[in-house]
Amino acid sequence: MGVPTFLRGLIILFAAVLCAPAAYAEDGYDLWLRYRPVEAQAQARYQPLATALVAGTPSPTLDAAQAELTRGLAGLLGATPPVASAVREGAVVFGTPKSSAVVAGLKLPLEKAGPEGYLIRSVRIDGARATVIAANSDIGVLYGAFAYLRLIQTRQPIDALDIASAPKVALRMLNHWDNLDRTVERGYSGQSIWDWHKLPDWKDPRYTDYARANASLGINATTLNNVNANALSLTPMYLEKAAALADVFRPYGIKVYLTARFSAPIEIGGLKTADPLDPQVRAWWKAKADEIYRYIPDFGGFTVKANSEGQPGPQDYKRTHADGANMMAEVLAPHGGEVIWRAFVYSHEQPDDRAKQAYDEFVPLDGKFASNVIVQVKNGAIDFQPREPFHPLFGATPKTPLAMEFQITKEYLGFATHLAYLGTMYEETLTADTWRRGKGSTVAKVIDGSLFGQKRTGMVGVANIGTDRNWSGSDFDQANWYVFGRMAWDPYLSARDIADEWARQTFSNDAAFLKPTVDMMMGSREAVVDYMTPLGLHHLMARSHHYGPGPWVAGGERADWTSVYYHRADKGGIGFDRTPTGSGATRQYAPQVAAVFEDLKRIDEKDLLWFHHLPWDYRARSGRTLWDELVVRYTGGVADVTAMRNTWAGLTPYVDSERHAQVGAFLAIQEKEAQWWRDASIAYFQTFSERPLPAGYAPPPKPLSYYEALSFPEAPGI
Amino acid sequence: MGVPTFLRGLIILFAAVLCAPAAYAEDGYDLWLRYRPVEAQAQARYQPLATALVAGTPSPTLDAAQAELTRGLAGLLGATPPVASAVREGAVVFGTPKSSAVVAGLKLPLEKAGPEGYLIRSVRIDGARATVIAANSDIGVLYGAFAYLRLIQTRQPIDALDIASAPKVALRMLNHWDNLDRTVERGYSGQSIWDWHKLPDWKDPRYTDYARANASLGINATTLNNVNANALSLTPMYLEKAAALADVFRPYGIKVYLTARFSAPIEIGGLKTADPLDPQVRAWWKAKADEIYRYIPDFGGFTVKANSEGQPGPQDYKRTHADGANMMAEVLAPHGGEVIWRAFVYSHEQPDDRAKQAYDEFVPLDGKFASNVIVQVKNGAIDFQPREPFHPLFGATPKTPLAMEFQITKEYLGFATHLAYLGTMYEETLTADTWRRGKGSTVAKVIDGSLFGQKRTGMVGVANIGTDRNWSGSDFDQANWYVFGRMAWDPYLSARDIADEWARQTFSNDAAFLKPTVDMMMGSREAVVDYMTPLGLHHLMARSHHYGPGPWVAGGERADWTSVYYHRADKGGIGFDRTPTGSGATRQYAPQVAAVFEDLKRIDEKDLLWFHHLPWDYRARSGRTLWDELVVRYTGGVADVTAMRNTWAGLTPYVDSERHAQVGAFLAIQEKEAQWWRDASIAYFQTFSERPLPAGYAPPPKPLSYYEALSFPEAPGI
Predict the structure, then answer these.
(1) Does residue B19 belong to the interface with chain A, where contact is any CB pair within 8 Å?
(2) CA A314, CA A331: separation in Å to the nearest integer?
(3) ipTM value of the model?
(4) Does the model's pTM come out above 0.90?
């Protein structure tokens, strides 16, 4: 640069002094795309390899890639990389063979990248070292640009790169349970980021940052509105608003989907019926689809919750889910759209076991769905509990593609204040073996289509995104958005690797920070399981808002919305017998799986009370009685949180004070609430077990009546 | 500094390049406390006069003052001022005679400062030039610190200061119409900033910034929750949360008040009645007050909306407002608390003129209220319309102190997207002459207590604050918070001066920016009046959410919630006859005022149709018929907004791109909606006037039926 070394030091010093307070304000808004300056040594390593950007013919998506590379390298390496027209030493070339003559000239094996993937390679071009980010499509280039920046953010070497990556799942989607009034069902991070009232005229810059964050993970689809749908979303006024969002998202490869309320033909169409076989209804949906595509030419399709929890659906007219889905599929097909039909259904009548209903409903329909329908199945058969065995539908529909539905927002895992990294939960489900085509028939292979050779594949996450400055309600909840996106790209990635990758980008690459932090994240969800619902217990939270313990919840509208329905505690014991002596739900799994679940000697104790009703003096593998084991687990969950608090308290040197303080405050809340869960649950179950606590375990400090009387009518998220 | 000039330039250049994007990100969060570096010339002028801070004995409030001076001077002058133990050349000394020996030694005429005010003086101490910020109380010092920083932010000289300032109004309060579920009634800037669910454990740093912003204006009280009250706010769980907020606010001189739901003794007390004369009810309130003061020792008191719009109140038990207010006053009095009793009441029965009811209700009660009751009166007799004549209660209760209630949030002035500076509206009310003690008996003199020698005085603003990053929904809406606070401190300040002061701090001191911007602000509210409700029309907006025009609104629950009740248009003419030939509301004013309002020759045409029903061919002072004049005004309002857009478009050199873009986008929305208001209103009123538009005035582009059919069920704020 021609600036003497001593001056450069001086300049950096002055710059740091001048801009430190504002420049490094850490409020979480930047997510994992922080691009803070690398350490001096890393700077010396990276800088010569990122001296300039070489672009080709621009496009909106390639412009986004260039902007991100510019922003990222400027932040990480301290200087904005110039855009060069020719390759020079250290250049970063990006593009497709079509957009870039340099890329075309390299004759790269781009078949590895597929339609959406990328290659990143260290190459020599006319003697100059260069890095090329290449793809078959512009969006592949953008994904590659983010992957390249991630290498530097996580301090990987970039001098001998030979990376090929392509998504293993076609549809990588967020579901926003966002209402038109900006409330978010099960949202704990502020309002909906969609400011419907000001759309389409005001396009909040946050929409672009949302698209950037998703594209950085490969998320390529978003359902904007709540599955408990409002037909107004399909009226012209709201289609115009959705189209404005689609315009913002398009360069980032994100397609817009909308939920379709099944009764919309009645509510906004003026018809008397929504019967999917009624010609007028079919005509209405066809006209509606055509209208939507006039607003959004690349509209993705409909996400539909029908005949579930009071939502209207085809069964209202004695039609099947296939009848309903296929009607919509037919009107979307000419436009290339698809239907995502949720399998989270259970009848209005009281079932013998709610866990069995989706399977019973959908397996008989296997083969009956149109080719552009995908059925969206929650990871477990009940409802996003801290732990559930994998859903028996996975692997049970060889002719019907299934999309995984994970919940990113922590409806049942402590809202935004509990630190619970969900990567381990997602991993547990994805690596579970359905045995449907023999050993190794994992859920991941169902989801990526490889088990049955299905091309239409999908993974869906119920978003935890809101208007909170840090997007997700807490800094660590950003990791759940992140791990969802990364696993949707590749369901075989490990939860630990992703936690490490996320923590490096979000906080620090310092090993002294990473090890305890990643360990803490990896154990965090198990802690929640233990202090809320150990040993396979489930659905024990307070009614409606689900905040805090409510194992005593009984009565009301329907039995399967109570806790007593699920834990079935009595003087004799506790747990839901789902073996053939009970509901027989185990038989919805492959025989090899059922045999394990049914066998008390072989079942993993994490699922024990999910499948078995056992006496209080049943011997756990620890040698303790079931009652004692429950108390030990509950108590251990609280101790785990205390340990997390201590761990975090020791990490002050590595984390800015602003984020450190909030995480610390939230861990304190978590510890308090973990104790509350433990105490209330033990106080309640003790009325059945009628046993003392094991020696050394403190009894609940208050009587059960105290915990039962607690009331939180204004808890968020409903 | 020893650094050669060419190097300093280089350093500044590099620093600017390095930290420009992040350091100067302007998202509005900093409000008017931006403290951006002053120009080089100003730096040379100010720096020698602010070389160090000299503090005395610390206290939480003096610590806040020191922190603010440090932050402000570091930002403005580029270097953190050292804290010195002794006065040196250029020192800034701050404190009270009690906390600071230096201040005590100066023997300043601190009687001018009163209990909350301050002196700022340029002095010499032992030969050294110094600036002293002195007060009788710590909070006065904090106010003085903000005032001192404002001088630099607005580029005033600080070398020969002799400033004394004391608030003219005792209670300077915000009312948050915030619900416990974080919705905000009539809020257009996101959720409530009170995150009740995470309180008291998580004290969001934003609460401190809220307190800083308010203290910078002298606001010293806040009612946390909605006047449409929820009794839960008074339960221990919520008192603990409110106490946590009070703890944050205390150093900034802000007292917490809560709304008290009149029926709370029934709802949370288990009583069968809330009759204010019932001994059990009185005992319940006494115990509740005692309990509250255990949580919040300096609790301010209750804000009460009773017997208004469905809220419970003493009239439910055939008691008077005085009975209700005095019961609460009695239980608060031992603790030094007060009751703010709202006069915004109107009966369930259909009145002859809603505008008359508050006067009719409260004037007979004058003298009947306890000494710690203040009656809170909206600026006008209807409800925060774009323009209302001053409320007839002002000046009509010599024995009852009245607090002014202004609405800062723009329920009726276009929500957050319309630029409407309310300083002119507040000024118009405050300078209005009640004539109750002869000429010059202005509303301001009622409010500051000088007209009747009242000591208990207050000004209350319904806050426009929410979780939006910029707090108020738009950058220019911050000015309305600002001007409210400044006028609460001194109701005689001019709206123009405050606009100038605000614009300097918020955007730029450049004269080329200030003149057009302040002009634009000063004309902005009149533009809204013209495109919504010209010539004294009022209450013509859509039902319930109040978004957009609804002059056709009729029927429903009660006549005085419709538009036709207020405009009374028919073939014969338009307007509400409030002279003695009509409702006679004019007679609620002093005779000199009534005489003007009743006389078509003397009345200001801005109030014409508020007081008179006039034929369509009535001759306005312009010489035009009333119909033509209406069309001209409506159209002119739209043209004013177009001019505002053009003005703003020309100010790009002076405003960061982020804020410039949002203001520009909002002005585009405002222009569109102004046109909609104009077109819909003209289309509607033309059905009565049956007259053509004046030559050159475009007819509405759509038929009336189009405007009437528009529906916005999800409009915000309800």
Answers:
(1) yes
(2) 16
(3) 0.95
(4) yes
